[in-house]
Specification:
Blueprint lengths: L1 H19 L15 E2 L1 H10 L3 E7 L4 H9 L4 H10 E7 L6 E3 L2 E3 L1 E2 L7 E2 H6 L8 E5 L5 E6 L4 H12 L8 H6 L1 H5 L11
Parallel strand pairs: 1-3, 2-3
Antiparallel strand pairs: 2-8, 4-5, 6-7, 8-9
Length: about 200
Amino acid sequence: MRMNRLFLLLTGLMLFVLSSFRPDDSPKAAPKKIKWLTIQQAYDLGKKTPKKFVIDVYTDWCGWCKVMDRQTFTNPAVVDYVNENYYAVKFNAEQQGDITINKQTFKYVGSASGRGIHELAAALLRNQMSYPSTVFMDEQFNLIQPIAGYLEPRTFHQIITYFGGDYNQKEPFDKYKTGTYAKLYPGPLTAKAGE
């Protein structure tokens, strides 16, 4: 009798412990993502509904490009601002297909080393090939500015809001960062998705 009670008590305790560790069945919201387009898709959309363009120029072998994908392009504040204010383009600088923009065709140019470059990447980066690079263009697809190098989320957010809000036409970037940006976006930038 005493053994049965002990057995029932242990069984009940085990069931209680096991039920405490069951997986959470509640649906989780999918992380926000930038709506990446091809350059042709963005260009075509921009002709119908004008918006600025932000172009991530990368290569498959670029380590800092992957870090920017994981850290900067997943930040909720960055994702929201880019999706609302830009056509976002991912552009592989070594892709090999022809691209025609505004009746001009850009081609891949191979090299003796086996690694080539796309003419459009060279044009966007003003022949200063560096990866990652972020290129900003206005609503008419005119180059505003390419920015070379990895950009952490806060710096990237400062830049996209600077060009997105046309502050580049009103004040120098350093003044914008410490004045206008600090007033518009006080406090720390929203944490990266998944943190």
